[in-house]
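Checklist before submission:
- one chain only
- standard amino acids only
- sequence pasted in full

Submission:
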Amino acid sequence: MNTRISDVEVLRAVAVLFVVFQHLGSLFPWTLAPLEMLYSYMGGTFGVDLFFAVSGFVIARDLIPRLLSAPDKATAWKTMLAFWVRRIWRLWPSAWLWLGLTLLAVVAFNRSGAFGTFEANLQATFAGIFQYANVRFAQNFMVSEIGASFVYWSLSLEEQFYLLFPVLIVLFRRHLGWALLAVALIQICMPRNHLYLMMFRTDALALGILLALWSHKASWQAVLPNFLMLGRWGCLLLALTCIGVMTLLSSRLELTHYAIGIIAILSALLVLMASYDRDLLLPSNWLKTLLVCIGERSYAIYLIHVPVFFATRELFYRLYPEQIESLQLTMAYLITAAVMLTVLAQLNFRMLEMPLRKYGAKAALRIFQPPTQLHNNAMAAAPDRHIEPTIKV
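Returned file contents:
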């Protein structure tokens, strides 16, 4: 399947906007009282779990049928390799670019100390490159400095998932659903009272994959009328209720020890609504268009927002060394960071993500067909003119 689902992009936008909100406090060199009050009653950490549920669904709905329909082991291994190649070209270039730029900023643009020490950031850079940032985060949180690249913990967890998941499909095959259900239920019923349990949480990922498996069954389509009966406003109210509950569970209220499991279930419900591609989450309007645009750039926003926050602090430190907290200065921080984040995310999306995503798709296709065969197939399809073969992105 190569058709993008607009409602899935809306969920990505919701996820990244709440993650940005969660980290907004790091934008200011002072404690912002209204923001701290908001954090008491609402939080944005659930955005990561929503990302996980979306990723599990999007990746699995295409990969599982491909692997299960492979006629032999050689084709299955080629399918795995093609998948890994696409993911590498999709994720690593942007991630490595911003790891490098952040480390450069630590050295050359850090008079205020906003980015932290070189040693901590160098360790964080290695952890991000070699995909163990979640382990490092668990080891250093509240113990020592974690660096400006701390958001890479979730990327490392996803990369570990991407590495193992194709192998799990082949090993479990028809029993994959039961294995994933066990993984999800064990975690949902488990209080996350240890940081390692938080840094290796995969219940939302597993539920997203289960939804992808279910989407190929007739019973999945049979659920749609129940959502349609709610009507446009009923579905919107359901979605907003899920998001509202997740913000409460992500707040400092600590309502339950099982918050992460509940968030995973609610994230899966939102992904289920989005999976039908029937505008159940939000009707087609200017707001949805904006959220889809943000969702498409959510990976760039996720990578860039913390470095932008610290760069904004450094910039104002240099412009106004003797800063006094005020509404005007707070708004100046917000506007500057928003403009920088918007511009840099757009540049990253257009100039890096999109071209390399297409290149990765072509590289993956070459695993199955050598370049000469691809060219011959294209010429055979249209002998009078050169046509590029269709590439699945």
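Reviewer check: Residues 18 and 44 are 4 Å apart (CA to CA).
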